[in-house]
Amino acid sequence: MSADGNGSLRQEPTQVPTVNRRQLTVEPGHPWPSAYRGSKYSLVSSRKFGDVAQWSHMGDIQAMTERPRGLKTALTELGKTNGRGSFRLTATGEVLTKVPAGQYQRTSQARANRGHIPVYVGKLDGDFDFEEISNDPTPPSNTNAVEIWTGLPFNHGETWAVCTDDVLRWSWQDYRFESAFDHPELVAAYKSLRPEGGRIYINEHGHIWGNVDRDTVPSSERGRIRDAFDEWERTASNAERRLVTRRLNRTESEAAANGLLPVYLGHISQFDGGIVPKPVVTDNSYFGDSAMDPDQ
C-alpha cells in the first residue's frame, strides 16, 4: 500500500436541496449548508505508509487504505492541522470535513460561526476501498436477492430511518429531517424483511445495507434470510466473519436477543430510478448545535 492513490478528489460544485424545494449550489471550500453525514474516515499518519485514510470503531478495530489523491492538500488549505483529521463521504461521493472556526477563512459565511464549521471539500472520483474488506461489492442481479453485508459495519454509510409512515428520515441527536424525495421501492424492499422499519445505511458507492432482526422477519421471507446467512457462513473470509460477528454482538438487546443482522439490499440505482435520499434541514438551530461536535 502506498500513501497516495486510492481515488482522487475532484473539486467541483454540488447541489444541496433546501426548504421550499430549492436547490443550493455549493462550491468546494465553502461551508456545508446541510446535514453533516456519511461514512466516517480519518487522514492519519502511519509509520510505514505515511499519511493514509483510516476507518475505526471505538478504537479497538481499524483498517487503513491509501488516501485519495489531492485530499491532504485540500484539507491543509482549508485549515486542518497538517491536513489530517476526520472526513465524511456522502452517498453521492461528496467529501465533507469540519474545520475549527478560528482556522477557517470563510467562517463568516457559515450558518454557525463558532465551534467546528462543516465544509464541502469536493467529490471523490475513482475507487476508494480497502484490501481486506470491500465496500463496493457487485450488486445482486435483482432486488429480491438477499445477501449478508460483509463491508464495514460501523460508522459506514449515511444513516437513514425507515419509519412507520414509509418516510426516510435522517437524524442527529434530537433533530430529524426528511428526505427531499419519496423512496417507495427502497422502503418496500426493506420492510419486506423488517415490517416495523429500522435503520438502513447508504455508502459512498451507493450500496445499501440495513439492520434485520431475524426473530421478526415475516415467515414468507425467513427462508431467504436463512439461506443468505448459511451462504455467508460458508464463504466469508476471516476478516468478514469478525466484522459481522462484532455487529451482531454490538446490536444485541432485549428487543433483539440475537443481534441485528447486516443485510445487503442492493445498489441505489436499483430503486426508485436511482434517486439518492438527501435530507432537508428545516431547523436552523441544528447548525449551531452540530458545530459544537468536532467529529473527531
User: What count of domains describes the coordinates?
Assistant: 2
Radius of gyration from the alpha-carbon trace, in angstroms:
19 Å
Helical fraction: 10-25%
Total beta-strand segments: 17
Strand order, biggest sheet?
A: 6-5-4-8-9-10-1-7
User: Termini, distance in Å?
Assistant: 25 Å
Strand-residue fraction? 25-35%
SSE pattern: EEEEEEEHEEEEEEEHEEHHEH
Instruction: Determine the number of helices (DSSP H or I, runs of at least 4 residues).
Output: 5
Low-confidence stretches: none
Mean pLDDT: 94
Keywords: Plasmid
Region (Disordered): 1-32
Biased composition (Polar residues): 8-23
Task: Describe it.
With 296 residues, the chain is an alpha+beta fold. It folds into 2 domains: 4-128 and 286-291, no CATH class; 147-274, no CATH class. It is 17% helix and 32% strand. The protein contains 5 helices and 17 strands. The protein has an 8-stranded mixed sheet. A 7-stranded antiparallel sheet has the order 11-17-16-15-12-13-14. Strands 2-3 form a two-stranded antiparallel ribbon. A hairpin with a 3-residue loop joins strand 5 (50-57) and strand 6. The two termini are 25 Å apart. The mean pLDDT is 94.
Structure summarized in a few sentences:
Residues 8-23 have a biased composition (Polar residues). By secondary structure, the protein is an alpha+beta fold.
Any chance you could write out the topology, listing elements then pairs?
Layout: E1 4-10, E2 14-17, E3 23-26, E4 39-46, E5 50-57, E6 61-65, E7 67-69, H1 71-78, E8 85-89, E9 94-100, E10 116-125, E11 147-148, E12 158-162, E13 168-172, E14 175-178, H2 184-191, E15 198-202, E16 207-212, H3 222-235, H4 238-250, E17 261-267, H5 285-291
Parallel strand pairs: 1-7
Antiparallel strand pairs: 1-10, 2-3, 4-5, 4-8, 5-6, 8-9, 9-10, 11-17, 12-13, 12-15, 13-14, 15-16, 16-17
